[in-house]
Amino acid sequence: xxxxxxxxxxxxxxxxxxxxxxxxxxxxxxxxxxxxxxxxxxxxxxxxxxxxxxxxxxxxxxxxxxxxxxxxxxxxxxxxxxxxxxxxxxxxxxxxxxxxxxxxxxxxxxxxxxxxxxxxxxxxxxxxxxxxxxxxxxxxxxxxxxxxxxxxxxxxxxxxxxxxxxxxxxxxxxxxxxxxxxxxxxxxxxxxxxxxxxxxxxxxxxxxxxxxxxxxxxxxxxxxxxxxxxxxxxxxxxxxxxxxxxxxxxxxxxxxxxxxxxxxxxxxxxxxxxxxxxxxxxxxxxxxxxxxxxxxxxxxxxxxxxxxxxxxxxxxxxxxxxxxxxxxxxxxxxxxxxxxxxxxxxxxxxxxxxxxxxxxxxxxxxxxxxxxxxxxxxxxxxxxxxxxxxxxxxxxxxxxxxxxxxxxxxxxxxxxxxxxxxxxxxxxxxxxxxxxxxxxxxxxxxxxxxxxxxxxxxxxxxxxxxxxxxxxxxxxxxxxxxxxxxxxxxxxxxxxxxxxxxxxxxxxxxxxxxxxxxxxxxxxxxxxxxxxxxxxxxxxxxxxxxxxxxxxxxxxxxxxxxxxxxxxxxxxxxxxxxxxxxxxxxxxxxxxxxxxxxxxxxxxxxxxxxxxxxxxxxxxxxxxxxxxxxxxxxxxxxxxxxxxxxxxxxxxxxxxxxxxxxxxxxxxxx
Length: 670
Hints:
By secondary structure, the chain is an alpha/beta fold. 50% of the residues lie in helices and 17% in strands.
């Protein structure tokens, strides 16, 4: 019956599978032609079975069509990004956001329009990150401004560390494949357009609302928090603020999401309480329009789009007096977003948002009815606890995989802070609306300041509690998928015993256990030498089974090392490098870690692998790199200005590995 109750499950699943397949297979022209012919033949054949109650051929053909559509849509999206050469070039582009201030530069995100040459212009597609030297002239730029820049595009690459976050994949899914370093001379022309796109106008409006907050006395950390919670502007947040909310398990309230849309829609519905009967349609239309306006102002994030689309589908269904299935509305919004931008299904915010909502729709009512409270306050607390538990249950595997931590007090913090944040969001919307009436705007701004301060204090207190987080835990992608399925099926079994068999969750649990076992055995039987690609430190790991011996110049293990250990469940042993030369035995290999290299040390220790540490490693002039047969690794701590001695032919040697340029060095040994 699921295909009747939830039709978008049937049509959405093959589309999503096709998009995922696009990660591993790129269809060529012959494949598309053959597929098109096959689909046409099958659709024609299905016409012969229309008189029957079930037309299996039509259903099969539709599934294949949706699968191939997903594959083609994702492939076209990826291939649409223009490939650029790493050479000085002139580009016409559009600024897509406000310049973001960094420590030593301003980050400009631009959409490339054309590549300008002497005799012609070439259309280009995609966006680029520009790290522009600190210059006050860029601070006056607005989203939608037109620029002509001269720069050398550099392809975004990963650092190559084991189990690291795939930053390149993430950026490509957002249409950004390149970055460049620029300064004032590189910005050849800056033009203010006569007309801006609606999305750029929305960003400018968002900045004006932030200015209204400032005018009403909301500043510094409180302004950063209000801007993040009400407008989705998180660039102003202090790193410590983010960490407090992450550790307290309430980071979701700082990312404008479905929670904000629900709060806003309930608030608007309450304000329009007098619109009943015939005016009920008008009330729904006004609420939908306000929600879409809110979605535009907050930057059209996938989570807000999901909530707005779902609410729109739900309310349109109610206006048509048709019963609307919640899961179907959620999947319908996912289907629409995937058609617009297929890569959205790989976005972490998209996945977390949809998982939480689907779990709440499927299990909230059954879980809530397990306990009954006559007291109004107790019942409200129980409702909040149920929503929190169910949402956390749905997102647990993905949270662990992405963030390598789990907040232990999430129920307590969400029960207290989420209602408080609801008030903060509502008051945060009232302040700019009442800005023409100064005394009212100032009054609500004062309330907003106090609410923000209280939210910060409670969050900081919760994050500082003992054992507030289980840290350095993790899992692989396969384990995450299987655990998600296991939790879902066991929750179905517990809450819907009469209609569900124990066989399905048991099989899924066995698959999850098998995956963990295979991963554990593989890890135990694998020995590796790893030179991590980090920032500001030299870290070399010798992994023997489930133990990682780290040789580093810092006491605190770098983040990339902790993520590696958390994902594979490795036991970390840190060894501080205090000597100029350290010798390590790894199986049959001898490894020398040193900040200098000379003929004398090579003759004494005769290492198989040389790892040069420090920001300016020294290489003796008497060493012939063209005759260098050993492996040489230059750690990422080497400064960006470091160069190997200029000896003919050394650049072609595959025995020399610059970690900063080529990524982390990983080699297995016995």
